[in-house]
Amino acid sequence: MLFKQLFEPDSSTYSYLIACPETGECAIIDPVLDTVERDLGVLQSLGLKLTYTIDTHIHADHLSGARRLKAMSGSKIAYPAIDELPCVDIGLEEGTAFKIGKIELQPLFTPGHTDHHHAYLIHTPVHQMLFSGDALMIDGVGRTDFQSGDSKTLYNSIQQKFFTLPDETLVYPCHDYEHRQISTIGQEKKRNKHIGEKSLEEFIEIMDGLNLPYPRKIDFAVPGNQQCGECPENIPEEYRGPCEKYDQGH
Amino acid sequence: MLFKQLFEPDSSTYSYLIACPETGECAIIDPVLDTVERDLGVLQSLGLKLTYTIDTHIHADHLSGARRLKAMSGSKIAYPAIDELPCVDIGLEEGTAFKIGKIELQPLFTPGHTDHHHAYLIHTPVHQMLFSGDALMIDGVGRTDFQSGDSKTLYNSIQQKFFTLPDETLVYPCHDYEHRQISTIGQEKKRNKHIGEKSLEEFIEIMDGLNLPYPRKIDFAVPGNQQCGECPENIPEEYRGPCEKYDQGH
């Protein structure tokens, strides 16, 4: 398995390139519109052609690169099936593995940050890697105060779907704001400041007290991502840069 | 490959169990005397018999479990060859891979924390794992004020032997004092508070200013570890617990 972690600095988003060397198929989990050209350059340097993009949820803090990558490379768009987005080529759901060549990705339905959020797990004797999206991050969790977010639901998702995995399982989140790149299930169970060794009641109290600012891109990112990363009409001038390069005809 | 990270809380030491499922051979990197019974229990629960212990250096903060594990399970003791310890069965040196069944461990001569320190690298298309010992830790480095430690030497070891590895390489350190379990080369290059994006001069200044306390076990741990984890005569009463269970005849 070929693997690369890619970073988009404006929204502090990690995208993940996963490729099967035997078949040449490859996917990017949570690509960002702003870094589509960079990602295609990485693929080219590795001699790969993008087969799929896969999103964990409808992001509110950046525009997905899914639609643009499809236009530029012919990749198919995979999203949680529950979102029922017309722009999606492949619906993913828990219980049905998604294959990137010979690599099996297990979707895990993990609502709470959003009501349709899915994480993706590679669990073989050789690799145990969790792409935790915005559900579980390094020393934190995704906010639950927008997009049908619900703290109790997120607590249960993390406890039941993530914290039951082996401690050694590698955790690759969708974001980190302090340039951390990786964690493990054991580490987050022990020391995550929001949910590590916390009761449901403690977790809800912590989440209720976060007082986070209004997400600066949510008003255009959510409608844009409901179209798999289209640039919507109402996008403010300061965020138009990545959109202007994008041929809206695709 | 079967892999487990094991923790000894008194010295905050991580030991690493690596096993080759094809041959059944297995090793523990940096085992601790205090947790020998726990480690043997883990091995038993996995149906494994210990083949090797491997140390990264002569530790000053805990007694190695190498000698005791040999006595209890028949494992062979591997240490950096440069230490020339009479108790060692297998001398390791950079340039010669050490095989745990079909798994190849590459010793990397990385002095600076001690003058004989070696890290161990697994670098295959499937796994890139660095067991960085006390040279590189998560958001820090090993102290350089004892045991022939030298800041300039450590800086060069990390820059030349570690920071030239791919960013995705997983970093498994010998210690963490905040229950963090893992990092990557990319993360440490970017944000390690001692050496990340620091010049040699900045690094030396940081290391010179650490003002760390005198290592509480060094006076017995170093002579004990020069015998691969023998309990020396001068061990203070409060640290005798793990020694009293140990049959000194072995």
Structural summary, described in words:
The structure is a homodimer of 250-residue chains. The first copy, chain A, has 250 residues and is an alpha/beta fold. The first copy, chain A, has one domain (2-239): Metallo-beta-lactamase, Chain A, CATH 3.60.15.10. Chain A is built from 7 helices and 14 strands. The first copy, chain A, has helices at residues 36-45, 66-73, 151-162, 185-191, 200-208, 218-225, 241-244; strands spanning 2-8, 13-19, 26-29, 52-54, 76-80, 90-92, 98-100, 103-109, 118-123, 128-133, 136-137, 140-141, 170-173, 183-184. In chain A, the strands form 3 sheets. In chain A, strands 1-2-3-4-5-6 form a 6-stranded mixed β-sheet. A 6-stranded mixed β-sheet of chain A has the order 7-8-9-10-13-14. In chain A, strands 11-12 form a two-stranded antiparallel sheet. Chain A is globular and about 45 Å long. The two termini of chain A are 31 Å apart. The model of chain A has no long low-confidence stretch (mean pLDDT 95). The A-B interface holds A 1-5, 21, 125-127, 167-168, 170, 178-184, 186-187, 190-191 and B 1-5, 21, 125-127, 167-168, 170, 178-184, 186-187, 190-191.
**Overall mean pLDDT of chain A:** 95
Assign an overall shape of chain A: globular
Write down the oligomeric state.
Answer: homodimer
CATH topology of chain A: Metallo-beta-lactamase, Chain A
Detail the poorly predicted runs of chain A.
none
| Series of secondary-structure elements of chain A, N-terminal to C-terminal | EEEHEHEEEEEEEEHEEHHHH
- Rg from Cα of chain A: 17 Å
